[in-house]
Amino acid sequence: MLDGLFWFVPIASISALFFAYLFFKQMMKESEGTERMAIIAQHVRSGAMAYLKQQYKVVGYFFIGLTLFFAFLAYGLKVQNPWVPFAFLTGGFFSGLAGFFGMKTATYASARTANAAKDSLNKGLKVAFRSGAVMGLVVVGLGLLDISIWFLIMNAVYPWELNEGHNLIIITTTMLTFGMGASTQALFARVGGGIFTKAADVGADLVGKVEAGIPEDDPRNPATIADNVGDNVGDVAGMGADLYESYCGSILATAALGSAAFIDNPSLQFKSVLAPMLIAAIGIVLSIVGIYAVRTKEDAKLGDLLKSLSRGINFSSILIVIFSYLIVHLLGFDNALGIWGAIVVGLISGIVIGKATEYFTAYEYKPTQSVANNAKTGPATVIISGLGVGMLSTAIPVLSIGVAIMLAFLFASGFDLSNMNMGLYGIGIAAVGMLSTLGITLATDAYGPIADNAGGNAEMSGLGKEVRKKTDALDSLGNTTAATGKGFAIGSAALTALALLASFIEEVKIALIRAGDEFLEMGNGVMIETKKAGIIDLVEYYDINLMNPKVLIGVFIGSMMAFLFCGLTMNAVGRAASKMVDEVRRQFKEITGILEGKAEPDYARCVEISTRGAQVEMILPSSLAIAVPIITGLIFGVAGVMGLLTGCLASGFVLAIFMANSGGAWDNAKKYIEEGHLGGKGSDSHKAAVIGDTVGDPFKDTSGPSLNILIKLMSMVAIVMSGFIVVYNLL
Question: I need a labelling partner for 512 at 20 to 30 A (CA). Which of 53, 152, 392, 467 fits?
């Protein structure tokens, strides 16, 4: 019998989808403006949808191959739960669907935002932000709906009240596997979209701005439509799929840890599984309330615009603190105050990471201004100072996550370090707390590319300077919110991945039981029943410690993976961008009248180059992310995989922050100069800053944000393949 409180979860998810539809319809009622504005928007929309169609085709082949492989493991070798292939497919499908809806909305919203900015800055902000909210609400709505449906299906097959609580462990660990489908789709979306957008962006900037001396988003630039398409496929569809996977992963990992922590108390066991779902559900409702709180005054500066977005996020965050306490108190946890403390710690650490990212990337603060000042001495010093800022920016997020992990563990365990299960549950629920207001935090992130495209549309349509000034203000805000969103995504990935590490050990226990190992012989000769073995017992059984060479080798391979992955994706952008540069130069040379505005460039050719480059280049890095955990497990077993995941988490987390913040600082240093400082647009300082921004493009929009998916995907692959690894390994 399901608790009546459970039904609030699917109701909240449907509410999110309803409001997403409502905001979409409100946006569609706005005018796209002039005929020229509508034509440009249609170009971008067609290019984005053509790219997405091609990407889903490639990803579809991968999914078919992996589903057949999982079916073989489940039905042939019997080392996997028979539901895994189906869960994997639905995870990928819903993740792709979230990206599709978000991008469809964004491509319709850009011209409408530019047109609304003609009336007022507040109206432009509202159209762009409400359109971004569609992405946020679709992600949380589809994520929670998928979880609700799977929970109902699994509970019908394995009733949670039966089998002394072990059924609930089977339910939660099986549901975790649909996270791999979401992770796989997210990585393809992020890597493919990142390569597409940055190939176009680099080509447009280097040839257009630096060589030809024409403004950003100038219609004479052949790569400008591809650049605008790229903003949507990378920063909307890619980010949506990424955070869909973090959101679901944190809820499912925490549910799995809760089912293990409370196995001796059936009533609390079910409630511990329900708690992360309820917190996410109430977060949806409060995000919708926060979205309605965002508005600004007409003469607003960047600081005022930031405050107006912060108002909505802070309002939702304060309310979630209050309501989450009511939830854990209502569920009747013995340590309700401690679990609530873990939730609050997660939420605060997310805010701290966001503020730290804002400080290091917004041009209102010293770090980015120092990067801009270095442009006076050329591009080399811009690049050096940007790298330095990115490295310095890692300190606060890393320390924040470290403090959050420790406090969440202590609060949930009642300050008893030996109470491992409850401590890990606290870390998991801290990740849920951080992502509880994702509906509005993702709205602020998806807002960025919409505002960027609105500025592009205004420039290409030849709207007045006053309109362009407003869209520039919205765009500058978008750069900061995008950087903050990336920091937030990386921080949530670190907490979620740590919860997934613990869930991997739980999945190993299920695999041992499935393989027929009813008892574990410990090093001291003591026999423990596998069903009753805790995480510490399994860690001891597999000798997971730093003196074990298998663990150490895994740590080194995991650390290497973060750099190998970044190297592959950076070089992919370089190769695709060089083709784009050649094409833009060719068109300037061969199509007479482009630079005089008398002939229209071949925009479609540039979109085609980016699309082809992205499809080819995304396959190798994405395949490695899936293959390496399997190969490591087959050679070094469970201990090697734990080392691999630990190494990738530690190095990937720090590297991702460094790359995202370096890129953000370079981008906004360029914007700072374009505002009229240090000589303004067209000056030598501006050209130096453009080169810095070009270097930063793959940092912040391809390699950096893809790393947080890599961390979680490798964990998910390990979880899904645990049954195979337990039975088949060399060492």
Answer: 152
